[in-house]
Amino acid sequence: MILFVALGNIGKEYENTRHNAGFMLADLLISSGGFIAQSSAKFKGELYKKGSVLLLKPSTYMNLSGESVLAVANFYHPERIIVAHDDIDLPLGALRFKLGGSSGGHNGIKNIDKLIGNEYERVRIGVGKSQNGSKDTINWVLGAFSSDEKSLLDTVLKTAFNACLAAFSGSDIKELSSKFSLKPPKEQSKEA
């Protein structure tokens, strides 16, 4: 069984924010059909099932995402866990896949690492960094995508969607990385 976890914050005010890139990917997967909601308050999130795939959107808010992941993992004992999340260390338009490693300061990842360890796969969706420096990181990740940014993000999410389908069909992290990783589009020359 595969547990696919999408990170984000619940509530209308967070729907189009950078921190909800994982939720946006989950919503694409759910809307593709076949996922059936599994109701249980003990999972601390929205849980869906399709064949041997569980899809989880924690409702604990980002910083406590690990509580939801731990509850589902303890109940279902998945062989594979994949976590999709926004990543400020990657520019908007980038998509990367990795196994384990550092949280990169991402509080949702930190909490998951604390509760289940870091030996899970990650789908890293680039959202870039604030131009105002690290002091503005919270406002940046909780800020909404502009329409131009959303257009670029939609392209990334479509690729991530296809990568997830490949993972659900058995592709390993190396295959995902070689087939679906994206580099951001080249920046326009600032001299022009």
Automatic annotation (TrEMBL):
- Top enzyme class, one word, equals hydrolase
Query: Which parts of the sequence are marked as the site Discriminates between blocked and unblocked aminoacyl-tRNA?
Result: 9
Recorded catalytic reaction(s): these are: an N-acyl-L-alpha-aminoacyl-tRNA + H2O = an N-acyl-L-amino acid + a tRNA + H(+)
* Top-rank lineage group of the source organism: Bacteria
Q: Which SUPFAM superfamilies match?
A: Peptidyl-tRNA hydrolase-like (SSF53178)
Q: What is its EC number?
A: 3.1.1.29
Q: What InterPro entries would the database entry show?
A: Pept_tRNA_hydro, Pept_tRNA_hydro_CS, Pept_tRNA_hydro_sf
- UniProt keyword DNA-binding, yes or no: no
| Pfam family, any one | Pept_tRNA_hydro
Q: Where does tRNA bind?
A: 14, 61, 63, 107
Q: Which residues form the active site?
A: 19
- State one molecular function term (GO): peptidyl-tRNA hydrolase activity
Question: What are the site positions for Stabilizes the basic form of H active site to accept a proton?
Answer: 86
Read off the NCBIfam families from this record.
pth
Give a short account of what the protein does: Hydrolyzes ribosome-free peptidyl-tRNAs (with 1 or more amino acids incorporated), which drop off the ribosome during protein synthesis, or as a result of ribosome stalling. Catalyzes the release of premature peptidyl moieties from peptidyl-tRNA molecules trapped in stalled 50S ribosomal subunits, and thus maintains levels of free tRNAs and 50S ribosomes.
User: Which PANTHER family does the entry mention?
Assistant: PEPTIDYL-TRNA HYDROLASE
The family line of this record is: Belongs to the PTH family.
- Tell me the subunit arrangement: Monomer.
Q: Under which name does UniProt file this protein?
A: Peptidyl-tRNA hydrolase
Organism listed in the record:
Campylobacter magnus
